[in-house]
Design goal:
Layout (H helix, E strand, L loop, with lengths): L1 H12 L15 H9 L7 H7 L9 H5 L2 H10 L4 H14 L1 H6 L3 H13 L7 E5 L4 E5 L3 H8 L8 H14 L6 H11 L7 H10 L1 H17 L1 H17 L31
Antiparallel strand pairs: 1-2
Length: about 270
């Protein structure tokens, strides 16, 4: 649905270019001709990485914009190299965000990415990776998508990527009702996240009801899966240390602990200043 809306907007504004102008003079004419000669349905990772190459795209804005829906569809359907295309597309979109906003494509693209990557929030799978003397367990799905959105490789964080993260977190973490959602909240919330969303995740975990719901779902999964139990036990211990539970005060204090107010003193109303 979101992709169809994006495609409709682009088709109303831009036609397929007959040539690519190479504004940064970064490609040979043979490379540019090969890109244009490639049918839409045959375009692959390398083609999109050239068209949306950060700082040195193969065409001007109007020429490249036509290929946005094709690149987004490729990201959705080609998991093996989708992240390479996503990284280039985020960089190009950040560089052209004002024009994309005027064309109503900025948030349309954000909605597409949110829908595609939101599917990763519906599963949380662990994988053991063996090293020389030990093994490391980490989330095998989803984590690379989040890292690409916030660009953890030292590149300047993507503005659009952070917007997509915000949409994902607000949509999925507002109500903790499944193990994958609970797992992502606790995992991301106990690991360093790009500001400002680490603050948001910490606030969600600081809420006792949210935290209790997440831990309950995770513990239920641990009871039936030894790998999960080994992975989650230290994180749940860390969570308990970070947010210690306190015994709730009694609803009614015993009578002998209630200080009686002298009848001769009026009850003073506190100032609202």
């Amino acid at each position: 649905m979101e992709w169809e809306r994006l495609k409709t907007i682009v088709e109303a504004l831009y036609k397929r270019p007959k040539q690519l102008s190479d504004p940064s003079s970064d490609f040979s004419q043979e490379e540019l001709d090969a890109l244009i000669a490639t049918p839409d349905e045959a375009m692959a990772c390398h083609d999109f990485m050239c068209i949306f190459q950060t700082s040195c795209p193969a065409g001007c804005y109007a020429e490249c914009a036509y290929f946005i829906p094709l690149a987004v569809k490729y990201i959705e359907t080609n998991r093996s190299d989708a992240l390479s295309v996503l990284d280039c597309l985020l960089g190009w979109m950040d560089e052209n965000r004002e024009q994309l906003k005027r064309d109503k494509l900025w948030m349309a693209a954000a909605s597409c990415f949110s829908q595609i990557i939101g599917r990763e929030m519906l599963r949380f799978e662990l994988e053991d990776v063996a090293f020389n003397s030990y093994s490391l367990t980490y989330p095998a799905s989803g984590l690379n998508w989040f890292d690409t959105l916030r660009r953890t490789d030292g590149v300047k964080p993507s503005i659009l990527g952070l917007i997509v993260l915000g949409k994902l977190f607000r949509e999925h973490f507002s109500h903790i009702d499944s193990y994958p959602v609970a797992a992502w909240l606790v995992y991301l919330g106990t690991h360093t996240m790009t500001s400002p969303y680490h603050v948001y995740l910490a606030a969600r975990l600081a809420d006792s009801d949210t935290r209790a719901a997440a831990c309950r779902l995770i513990r239920a999964k641990c009871r039936e899966d030894a790998v999960c139990a080994r992975f989650w036990t230290p994180l749940l211990d860390e969570l308990a240390t970070r947010y210690p539970s306190h015994a709730a005060p009694p609803r009614h204090a015993p009578a002998h602990l209630v200080r009686q107010k002298p009848k001769s003193q009026p009850c003073l109303r506190q100032s609202e200043d």
